[in-house]
Amino acid sequence: MGISEIAELLGVSRQRAHQLAASHGFPEPVARLAQGPVWETAEVEKWARETGRL
């Protein structure tokens, strides 16, 4: 998933999703494409549950 999908999942703006993705503890991207970094959906969802964001 990309930043837009993370923002939608968490119910935040794309800007806030960028801030969260840069924060300590957020999963590392599995790839960095021309359109931006991408993450494993399951890892982001796990992080969101563990931090009380889901």
What does the model show?
There is one protein chain. With 54 residues, the chain is mainly α. Helix 1 (3-10) crosses helix 2. The chain has helices spanning 3-10, 14-21, 41-50, and strands spanning 31-33, 36-38. A two-stranded antiparallel ribbon has the order 1-2. It has three helices and two strands; from the N terminus they run H-H-E-E-H. The protein has one domain.
Q: How many DSSP E strands?
A: 2
Total helices: the number is: 3
How would you characterize the largest beta sheet?
2 strands, antiparallel
What's the gyration radius in Å? 10 Å
Residue share in β-strands: 5-15%
Low-confidence stretches: none
Blueprint of the fold:
Blueprint: H1 3-10, H2 14-21, E1 31-33, E2 36-38, H3 41-50
Antiparallel strand pairs: 1-2
Helix pairs in contact: 1-2
